[in-house]
Design brief:
It is a single chain. This protein is an all-alpha fold and 147 residues long. It folds into 2 domains: 68 residues, no CATH class; 61 residues, no CATH class. It has 8 helices and no strands. The protein is globular, with a radius of gyration of 16 Å. 20% of the residues are buried.
Length: 147
Amino acid sequence: MSLLFGGSRDDLRRGWLQAWQKARSGAVLTPLETQLAAIVGEHPEYHLWLEQGDTALQAEFSPESGRTNPFLHLSMHMALREQVGTDRPAGIRRIHAALTRRLGAHEAEHRMMEALGRAIWDGQRAGTAPDERRYLEDLERLNTVRR
């Protein structure tokens, strides 16, 4: 997604902020901005924070701080929706549909984001692309666990 905004962390963050600002003002949105604003709309806990503009752009979210990075959280929602929309990796659409029936779409995405985060982290540590097979196996386990 960062490529759509120019590639830098600030560009990515600015894309989220601008989409939200435009949506709130009633401006005409591009299809991408419509998707971004819809995701932000599902997270009222971030609304006031995102309205801080440049302050939000400069915020740091180290693991030690214990603070959730809203831009990462929102971007993971977007990544999952892209994966489900394209069914890549193959089978993710079926898994998402089953979880959605059981948990609702938003909660299904939150559960799936845990697996996505692990896949990305494992790939980064190994210096490789995420292992799609392991990622799908992790997602499949979500369908067998009743929480």
